[in-house]
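ok so I'm stuck.
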Amino acid sequence: MPLIRPFAGLRPVPERAHEVVAPPYDVLNSAEARQRAAGRPWSFLHISKAEIDLPEDTDPYAAAVYAKAAENLEKMISAGVLKRDSKPCYYVYRLSMGDHVQTGLVAAASVADYDSNRIRKHEFTRPAKEDDRVRQIEALNAQTGPVLLAYRSDPVVDGLIDAVTVGAPEYDLTADDEIRHTLWVVSDESVIERLSSEFDRMNALYIADGHHRSAAASRVASKLNGGPEAMSSYFLSVIFPHKQMQILDYNRVVRDLNGLSATVLLEKIAAAFDVEGQNEPVAPARAGEFGMYLDGRWYRLSIHAERVPDDPVARLDVSVLAENLLEPLLGISDPRRDPRIDFVGGIRGLGELEKRVDSGEMAVAFSLFPTSMEDLMAVADANQVMPPKSTWFEPKLADGLVSHVLD
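replied:
not stuck anymore, here's the structure
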């Protein structure tokens, strides 16, 4: 089986694309999705968050939600808003957020290579979230939320993808959040063959975001058992060169000081970190450096070098902070389940950390240096798992631009 293959995408007709494109299903809650889709009958949120078309107290995991999603998808196809390409294609997808630009390939990625770990993971999944995606795929007979993948930047592949962007795009639109989405259709057989061949010689692809979507695709493929040629044996993905991807900081806020005073906490922190008071918010400039906001003041914390192990997971800043401060001093031993800790994506800025502490909701906040793609790939290559909330990718892929039908 090839690592990736083209597919006949189900996508908006060009004049409707701006009405269809929507944020990923998992970045909005039901109330936010209902608000975003108000007055927009063709928003893809009616498919990805179909509970917005049912009574407000509807359980998002109720059978009626998946049935409504299928009904809404069929309505959009019947109305001519969505149309399936007549032949298998690749699609080049460019995301632009301010000065940041990344350009990758929309493709169907091999479930078999996911199962064998050639498409590599770095997170655990939760059964309930997997089950949700399985039900959604089965109800729609399609994958509508792409998995974000990365490949080690390769000049030949990068050049092939860039060459496509010389032509006129099929879509070029800016969404409500100011993210620009540009898509080109790759229908030339020679270009398709070359892209397939170049990807097939790669040792690995890496899941950046979408572990539940890829795990669900594997479960559906196993149920259908369609064989290596079946489209159900592949899952919808967008694959970017790792050097173009942008990971923002993923920061931490803690509700209390675990019985310590601020003075005692600072004294104890000094056993593992150099501590310097700062007059401005601290955005760490390198790995091993952290900002801390406590009692209305910022501090710069620098971990003592001998406390950073060589293990690919233990050396991550999220692990270093947990092992040297959050667990031994603040008593946070299980950040996945402990209600005393919360996580704030870097897209919200350091002001959000100050706000959470100054309001009295939280007692202390920590800003972190972003995890690198190299670190993510090292963890995946070692077949290990990153701590929860280690990466925050921006910009986000849109839902609705291209969907993958399973037959």
